[in-house]
Amino acid sequence: MEQTVKIKLLPTKEQEYHLINISREYIKTVNTLVADMVQAEKILKLSSKDVHVSMPSAVKNQAIRDAKSVYRKVKKLKRVPILKKSVCIWNNQNYKIKESVIEFPVYINGKSKRIAVKAILTEYQHNLLKNQLGILRITKKSNKWIAQIAVKIPGPTQNNSDIVMGVDLGLKVPAVAVTSTGKTRFFGNGRQNKYIRRKFKSQRRELGKSKKLNAIRKLNDKETLWMKDKDHKISRTLVDFAIKNNVSVIRLEKLSNIRNTARTSRKNEKNLHTWSFYRLAQYIEYKAKLAGIKVEYVDPKYTSQICPMCGKRNHTKDRKYQCSCGFKTHRDRVAGINIINAPVIDGVA
Q: Boundaries of each Probable transposase IS891/IS1136/IS1341 domain copy (predicted)?
């Protein structure tokens, strides 16, 4: 089973200069080799010695492999594709990852030399990179350098128990999980999330008065990274909770229309429109699948209002849910219970 780990790089100005050069040279080389093969009407047998460009031998060989792959697609496409986006690729024998640094060779003053570029890695990414590594692909997206590393991980063993877990996503409590056996756990701290968002907003306002646009962009990146890290940690602990309780299926609300249907007050409206429920759901889904746990999406309609005991719809006061039949509990826990039994989208529960 293969997964791609995306890592943000922080190259120095000198390193960025070398990355720009080798990326442009790489894509130019691939296009040239494809054109040569089209003219010859066959895949050419080439080695690094046949390719006279300013790149390390290992990168030349990778460019040859990529050119052959593109040429094989030419007959299906019935046209010669021209690659435009600058990129460079190294195989797994030509780069190393040391803590928060990625080392790989580039071409400097006519010689192949290794550079060590600082990388921002989460704990989860560090753990993934302990598995068998594939190719390293470096490209620039929206003025950010991104490393993409293919990782081969052991395939999961599918859990065949009959235990289902419903997960309710929200603002005050980012995630609440309830199992069909009655186990409940709350994940994340909504108050802390809102505090951090207000802090970043205040800092942006001050920087905006000084018209420090670059500083604002860096602050936005920092905030996004913080939010992603929180979502990764919540999803990781949530899936670990599912594994511990032998859960075979995790059910989530279908979030395509959450901004119209979510339970929120006016003071939480801004947070609702900036917090990524979808990203957290995606993180939960792919971590669950890696653990052999199936993920299903259900209709979110009235999940926080219907009484799990008698089926009556009730409006809640703050976080407390109480029904005339005597059932009472935390509102988000009610949603989790109802999600377990809600109709599955694209199927029947």
A: 149-258
What value, to the nearest 5°, has the Cα angle with vertex 341 and ends 340 and 347?
Answer: 100
For CATH 3.30.420, list the domain ranges present in the chain.
164-341
The pairing of strands 101-108 and 111-120 is: antiparallel
Contact criterion met (CB below 8 Å) for 259 and 276:
no
Report CA-CA distances (Å) from 22 to 18, 34, 243, 246.
6, 18, 44, 49
List per-residue pLDDT tens for the chain, 349 residues long.
788 999 999 999 999 999 999 999 999 999 999 999 988 989 999 999 999 999 999 999 999 999 998 888 876 666 777 778 889 999 989 999 988 999 999 999 989 999 999 999 988 888 889 888 999 999 998 889 999 999 988 776 777 889 999 999 988 889 999 999 999 999 988 788 777 878 888 887 877 877 787 778 777 778 888 888 889 999 999 999 999 999 999 999 987 645 444 444 444 444 444 457 888 999 999 899 888 899 999 988 888 889 999 989 888 777 788 898 989 888 889 999 999 998 888 644 4
Q: Could you give the 3-state DSSP secondary structure of residue 251?
A: strand
Token digits for 280? 């957290």
